[in-house]
Specification:
- There is one protein chain.
- The protein is α+β, with helices and mostly antiparallel strands.
- The protein is built from 2 helices and 5 strands.
- The protein has helices spanning 21-32, 54-66, and strands at 5-15, 35-41, 45-53, 72-81, 90-92.
- A 5-stranded mixed β-sheet has the order 4-1-3-2-5, with helices on one face.
- Helix 1 (21-32) packs antiparallel against helix 2 (54-66).
- The longest helix is centred in the middle third of the chain and has 13 residues, at 54-66.
- The chain is globular, with a radius of gyration of 12 Å.
């Protein structure tokens, strides 16, 4: 169903530090209209969780896989999880 709400847990690996990656992800999330969060994990990974309509979440995932111009994504992984509805907006979280 195209308008059902979904939740995706996304990881991208590569050149993602010092290129504005989290700010880019936050801007993309707000633009497509999904809620959730993004954070750095280690030095070469960015992790995000996004909830919203399936089409919007899929657009968000594609934007994450593309990244900002200065980034280079080597690998990406997506896990679909049960929707919780816990997020009111999209935020940048502290790095792990």
């Amino acid at each position: 169903m195209p308008n059902e709400n979904v939740r995706a847990h996304v990881w991208v690996q590569g050149t993602v530090q010092n290129v504005g990656f989290r700010a880019y992800v936050e801007a993309q999330a707000r633009q497509v209209g999904v809620t959730g969060w993004v954070r750095n994990v280690g030095y070469d990974t960015v992790e995000a969780v996004a909830e919203g309509e399936r089409e919007k979440v899929e657009r968000f995932i594609e934007a994450m896989k593309a990244g900002p111009r200065a980034s280079r994504i080597r690998e990406s992984k997506v896990e679909w999880e049960p929707v919780t509805g816990e997020f009111k907006s999209f935020e940048v979280r502290r790095s792990m």
